């Protein structure tokens, strides 16, 4: 009877163990699915924040465009008013200029005609003076001949003696007349010469006046053409006023459209904010569910059930203890001080993207942890990395394959230069800050270049002198 009871209890224990194993497998699969959903929700939340940022920028730009359109509309109204005033002023000026130019041109033409007539009159006077001058020369010739005749008569009267006295008196009278005629002729010649000089001067000035009058008429014609151009300018301003009027309606329509867009963008922004708030709630809920799933796995493993994750958990605890021993030994050998080992004063490395930082314990981890962490990669083909992080998620020394020198490509760097970086995401911080014997997390790992991989992360705490330094992480593919 006792044997039967023992056999039944054994069968129950084995059945319970099988059921727990199956429960562990299912819980593991559930954790993977929840982690994937959590990653998608996180992505949606990030996308929502990015969209909200873009929409807010679009709202701001729309508001600026609305203000710019309002200024444009106001400026166009002011421009139209200015153009109207300019058109009126130019029109009035053009009329005044045209009237003045026309009056000046009429006066100039009359002056030119008078100058030409005066020039022609001077020409006639000049011809008359020349004829008088010619007659004066003839009179002088006659006077000389009369004087010669008087001289001959005087000679003949002298020969005649007493009988020629009467003839001599006549000869003397003739000579006196000839002398007077000669004097008059000489005086007339001098006056005519002066008159000719004056006439020549008048003719020269008259010619200059005619030339100036002709140029004035020409200038009046140019002024008239300028008046015509001014009229054309008036017409152009009138066309510009009409163009401004025709542009006013599209600007007003654009203003209304901009206001409508701004309203729609504000509505969209409100919708996105609501969506983002709900996504934040969904992310919080999925994180809680993920935590429950991870807690269930922790409970199953702590129950002594062997699951697929068990060997990774044991490896993480063993390596964490080895690192603690390395740190303790370095302190004992005075290779490093306790303050330096817990240095959180991270110093940025210039020119790195993503940003890398250094601490005072970096030389120790590079020299003592690199080989140990690389050896864990041989534990299972699914193992992707093994690295220690401090309580802030700072990863000083990574595996060799992730510790390449940075290039000029940030995307490449994100995937290949993961050492000396702070991973303060949920998984990284939890691994560094957890004080449980182990922590099993499921998450989506950013591989860089927009690529993600579903991973499990098992970590174990690292204590130095009873003080929590951080944790040892082992990441492996699902």
The CATH architecture of the largest domain is Orthogonal Bundle
CATH class descriptor of the largest domain:
Mainly Alpha
Summing up helix and strand content along with how strands pair, one would put the structural category as alpha+beta
What is the element string, with H for helices and E for strands?
HHHHEEHHEEHEHEEE
Fraction of helical residues: over 70%
CATH fold annotation of the largest domain: Helix Hairpins
Query: What's the β-strand tally?
Result: 8
Number of helices: 8
CATH superfamily of the largest domain: Methyl-accepting chemotaxis protein
Please mark out the parts with pLDDT under 50 across 5 or more consecutive residues, or reply none: 1-6, 8-13
- Beta strand %: 5-15%
Head-to-tail CA distance between termini: 48 Å
Give the overall shape: rod-shaped
What is the arithmetic mean of pLDDT? 76
Main pleated-sheet profile: 4 strands, antiparallel
Overall number of domains: 2
Q: Work out the radius of gyration.
A: 62 Å
Instruction: Output the strand order for the largest sheet.
Output: 3-8-7-6
What labels describe this entry?
478 residues; alpha+beta; Beta-Lactamase; 2 domains; four-stranded antiparallel beta sheet; two-stranded antiparallel ribbon; rod-shaped
Q: How does this structure look, described?
A:
This protein is of the alpha+beta class and 478 residues long. It folds into 2 domains: 69-260, Helix Hairpins, CATH 1.10.287.950; 308-477, Beta-Lactamase. It has helices at residues 2-160, 165-302, 310-332, 338-341, 362-368, 370-376, 410-416, 426-433; strands at residues 347-348, 357-358, 383-390, 394-395, 421-422, 439-448, 451-464, 467-477. The protein has a 4-stranded antiparallel beta sheet, with helices on both faces. It has a two-stranded antiparallel ribbon with strand order 1-2. Helix 1 packs antiparallel against helix 2. The longest helix has 159 residues, at 2-160. The chain is rod-shaped. The two termini are 48 Å apart. It comes from Maritalea porphyrae. Residues 26-273 form the Methyl-accepting transducer domain. Keywords: Transducer. This is Chemotaxis protein. Pfam families: MCPsignal (PF00015).
